[in-house]
TrEMBL record:
Name the UniProt record assigns to this protein: AEC family transporter
GO BP annotation list: transmembrane transport
Source organism superkingdom: Bacteria
Compartments where located: Membrane
Amino acid sequence: MSHPVLQALLPVVILIAIGYYIGKKHWVSANGTKDLSNVVFLVLAPALLFRTMSNVHLEDIDFRPVLVYFAAMWLVFGAVLWKLHFTRRAAVLGLASTFSNTLMIGVPLVSLTYGEEGLVTLFALVSLHAFVMLTMVTIVLELALELENARHGKAPKQRRSITTRLVGLGHTLFKAAKASLLHPVPLPIVCGLLFAQTGLKLPSVIDQPLQLLGAAFSPVALLLVGASLAVTTLGGHLRVALLLVGMKNLFHPLVLALLGLALGFSGVPFAVMVLTASLPIGANVYLYAIRYKVAEQEVVAAVALSTMLGLFTVALVMLLVGYLP
């Protein structure tokens, strides 16, 4: 029980299991789960993110491991896109192979494993994670949609000029970028960093409530993960789901680790990036599958299976991370 991997992972497993039991017992209704999700994302997460980053100075953050993380992500995403050809389905499955659940599982796990130092590195990634990845995949999906429409003769009756198409694409990208920046995850990180640069300290009357709310985030988020798993079915997409789990939970962190080692990276920031790459698939992937009407059931199955098997694959990656320099 004294092994550091067990010490970090076991509380996560227990809380997810309790949440699963709560879901199976229907102690929280479907609407109640949605309400709880709003509390986690709109109240608890911003409190934790803002308070943590309000004491961090930009010169103390090493963004180089974050750049390596994105490089590995683009390599894996590009490989999926090449293998499945340039289609909406390929883009969504590529996103599923690279987009981590950095908040609900990543924050508690990194906090237990690496403490405040690890969280600062993780939040540096989280501040850019959704913006970079979702903007990128929006570009790919919009271009793929145009190509599919052209291939199948579904282009608009009135042929649009290249200028009109570019303006439409630009409008879509602007909306995606705006939504990513004003999201309740990156926004408090940026606000916290800006506040930290002023050199001011939060008054205790504000700091203490934020501390209490932030402390509630990890247990409530993990209970919510378990409750969500209790009402999710895998359907008939087990094979695709298993392939995506292999790509996301194992291949993605492997590519990141090899790339980082080749570039001479080491230490806690690099270990945090490898661990983050091994996290289960994030829920935002499902939102894109719904929006572009492709691979919805495959993604639902993959997110659920990735989270369930993630308890084992993350443990394996954590053991191997211990051998990194």
